[in-house]
């Protein structure tokens, strides 16, 4: 909640900063229609998010705000908050073990992935085509819980990790239309763990600050014994965003 408040406050303050010369402010938020697939483990059992736990499609919320300027040596900055959560229910035929607890029969489960990105990037090319290169530092706070409706036992596992990721983004503006197309990649691999996300988008910006954007975004989360949690997850789907640019 504190992270959401911070980003909302920065976005609200953006109009006051537009008077600063050579400074551009942008902000937005989007609803992301995601499907969660892959496996988690805390122990010897790989647990399938769909087949074992019954996870399906759900809507997620993402907010972002950024500042771009004309000082070459200093990076541009974007903050992005992703509050990814879902719950599922299913009936297990074969038992699974999670954090020392064995589950069978009817189970309910939930996950909460709270992620805060700070992206620091430079723009070596900015005309019809805009190219951004830099680093994204992502703080992830993850929690997974499984409960047995049949026997009443429950288990929770948490994982907190900070990922420094390479950042690449490109955008091509269609002249005189306000329409643009683009994509973005953030990625890191180390010590058996990794974090990757990809997005492709098309958008339109009006002459009156407001804009709209639609695209597809996918995140891959591989954890190797991070806080006792292993994962090989994919979270992805289409999104539609409302944007502001000052």
Descriptive notes:
This protein has 246 residues and is mostly beta strands. 7% of the residues lie in helices and 74% in strands. It has one helix spanning 2-17, and strands spanning 23-41, 47-48, 57-69, 76-98, 101-126, 129-148, 154-173, 179-190, 193-205, 210-226, 229-245. The chain has a ten-stranded antiparallel beta barrel with strand order 1-3-4-5-6-7-8-9-10-11. A hairpin with a 2-residue loop joins strand 10 and strand 11. The protein is elongated.
Which percent range fits the helix content?
Answer: under 10%
Q: Give the number of helices.
A: 1
Radius of gyration (CA) equals 20 Å
- What is the subunit organization of this protein? single chain
Q: Low-confidence runs (pLDDT<50, min 5 residues)?
A: 1-19
Reading side by side through the largest sheet, how are the strands ordered? 1-3-4-5-6-7-8-9-10-11
Judging from the principal axes of the Cα atoms, what is the shape?
Answer: elongated
Given helix and strand content, the structural type is mainly beta
Question: How would you spell out the order of helices and strands?
Answer: HEEEEEEEEEEE
User: Taking all residues together, what is the mean pLDDT?
Assistant: 91
Amino-to-carboxy terminus distance = 26 Å
- Main β-sheet, in a few words? 10 strands, antiparallel, barrel
The overall strand count is 11
């Amino acid at each position: 909640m504190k992270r959401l408040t911070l980003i909302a406050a920065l976005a609200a303050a953006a109009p006051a900063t537009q008077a600063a010369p050579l400074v551009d402010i942008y902000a937005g938020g989007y609803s992301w229609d995601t499907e969660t697939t892959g496996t988690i483990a805390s122990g010897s059992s790989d647990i399938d998010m769909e087949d074992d736990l019954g996870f399906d499609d759900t809507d997620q919320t993402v907010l972002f705000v950024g500042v771009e300027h004309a000082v070459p040596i200093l990076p541009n900055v974007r903050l992005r908050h992703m509050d990814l959560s879902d719950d599922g229910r299913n009936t297990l035929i074969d038992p699974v073990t999670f954090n020392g607890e064995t589950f069978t029969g009817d189970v309910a489960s939930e996950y909460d992935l709270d992620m805060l990105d700070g992206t620091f990037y430079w723009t070596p090319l900015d005309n019809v085509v805009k190219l951004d290169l830099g680093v994204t530092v992502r703080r992830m706070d993850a929690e997974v819980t499984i409960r047995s409706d049949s026997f009443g036992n429950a288990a929770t596992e948490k994982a907190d990790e900070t990922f420094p990721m390479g950042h690449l983004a490109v955008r091509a503006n269609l002249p005189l239309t306000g329409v643009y197309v683009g994509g973005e990649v953030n990625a890191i691999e180390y010590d058996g763990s990794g974090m990757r996300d990809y997005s492709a988008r098309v958008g339109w910006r009006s002459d009156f600050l407001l804009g709209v954007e639609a695209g597809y975004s996918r995140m891959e989360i591989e954890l190797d014994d991070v806080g006792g949690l292993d994962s090989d997850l994919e979270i992805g789907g289409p999104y539609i965003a409302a944007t502001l640019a000052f």
